[in-house]
Predict the 3D structure of the following.
Amino acid sequence: MIEFKHVDFSYEKDRPVLRDLSFRIEKGESVGLIGANGAGKSTVMKLLLGLLSPTSGEILVDGVRVEKKTLPEIRRKLGFVLQNSDNQMFMPTVYEDMIFAPLNYGLSREAAEQRVDAVLQKLGLQELKHRHNHRISGGEKRMAAIATILAMEPEAVLMDEPSSALDPYNRRLVINTIRELKQTKLITSHDLDMILDTCERVILLSGGSIAADGPAEVILRDRALLEAHRMELPFCLAGRA
């Protein structure tokens, strides 16, 4: 579904951010991309969405190379949930945000409305449909942002810090929703407890390269590995290690 092949990237000459980065994510996998600040996580996401271009190497989404001429096709396959939902929800109401992309993809209004209603029902968010975005809570807005992406019916969902700035109740709601998604998922986060709850595999970035790639249960229990790369055990494991 997603493949990086020997990708290098630099914002400035002689200061590489990513170095010979290669990994493959299969269809249906749920992968956590972790690392300390500056490890290159956000750059990976921007490259995948075509917001940046690699210095060398190539990136494929469902076999299609990410480049300027393929971006419309690529972005229909990928749904991106931003860390700050205010940057994503730009229409007056949740309904108007959710129906915007389906209508622009050529669906009739009736078909688009059916899709919106189906997503809201699946997520248990029917009461948000006609709410104004500026009058809902942060947790509700995060869930509405996820619903907006799902209304696009992407093949893969990318999420940047989906649990940040949420109270415990809304954090658990978001985690449960992520766990139920059938799409391929790539999630960046410093919330390692959330990654452990939602991802079967973890890729640990350090200095723009892959320091570890394997089962989440293995990598997130390895205190020495995490501390060597300026990270700590998930809270749920710290007391047992």
Summary: The chain has a mean pLDDT of 92.
